[in-house]
């Protein structure tokens, strides 16, 4: 998946350790998969951040799919409406320094994660 390669390259560029690279790549991969599987495809924006000399990587996934009716439920480990493991959203949240999700039924979903070095 192209997203994995791009995120890995940016994480390397920012000087992330191998473990940090793997965390953000894994989170990105889960969110990209959700965008495709449930959102009908969408976009991802990569942003390189710097705050007080600290580097960060922010990824924003957006789709115009059916949206998520119950966000709390969707974030619960083990919950899936498909045939997944239900660990994608919760896992991505745990692997990130910051996690934001916004979704409106019928309009789509936006998930943003940030990992600071
Ligand atoms: N982009 C999305 N659009 C609509 N529903 C979503 C989206 N991402 C996640 N969901 C919903 O949240 C549930 C949990 O997602 P996740 O934790 O990644 O588990 P899984 O992908 O294994 O189902 C999904 O089963 C789906 O119902
Ligand atoms: Mg998933």
Helix and strand succession? HHEEHHEE
Note the main sheet: 4 strands, antiparallel
Global morphology: globular
Small-molecule components bound: adenosine-5'-diphosphate, magnesium ion
- Which class of secondary structure composition applies to the elements? alpha+beta
Radius of gyration, whole Å: 14 Å
Distance between the termini: 24 Å
Contiguous low-pLDDT stretches (5 residues minimum) are none
Mean pLDDT: 97
Enumerate how many helices there are, as a single number: 4
How many strand units?
A: 4
Sequence of strands across the biggest β-sheet: 1-2-4-3
The helicity comes to 25-40%
Give the amount of beta strand, in percent: 25-35%
Helix-strand blueprint:
Layout: H1 2-13, H2 18-37, E1 42-51, E2 54-63, H3 71-75, H4 88-94, E3 98-104, E4 108-116
Antiparallel strand pairs: 1-2, 2-4, 3-4
Helix pairs in contact: 1-2, 2-4
The chain binds adenosine-5'-diphosphate (ADP) and magnesium ion.
Give a description of the structure.
The protein is α+β, with helices and mostly antiparallel strands. It is 38% helix and 31% strand. It is built from 4 helices and 4 strands; from the N terminus they run ααββααββ. A 4-stranded antiparallel sheet has the order 1-2-4-3, covered by helices on one side. A hairpin with a 3-residue loop joins strand 3 and strand 4 (108-116). Helix 1 (2-13) runs antiparallel to helix 2 (18-37). The longest helix is centred in the first third of the chain and has 20 residues, at 18-37. The protein is globular and about 40 Å long. The mean pLDDT is 97. The site of adenosine-5'-diphosphate has 23 residues, from helix 2 and helix 4.
């Amino acid at each position: 998946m192209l997203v994995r390669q791009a995120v890995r390259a940016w994480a390397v560029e920012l000087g992330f350790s191998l473990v940090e690279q793997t965390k953000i790549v894994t989170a990105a991969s889960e969110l990209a998969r959700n965008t495709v599987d449930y959102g009908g495809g969408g976009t991802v924006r990569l942003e390189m951040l710097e705050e007080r000399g600290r580097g960060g990587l922010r990824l924003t996934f957006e789709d115009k799919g059916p949206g998520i009716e119950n966000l709390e439920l969707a974030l619960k480990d083990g919950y899936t409406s498909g045939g997944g493991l239900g660990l994608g959203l919760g896992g991505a949240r745990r692997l990130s320094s910051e996690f934001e999700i916004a979704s409106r039924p019928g309009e789509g979903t936006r998930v943003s994660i940030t990992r600071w070095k």
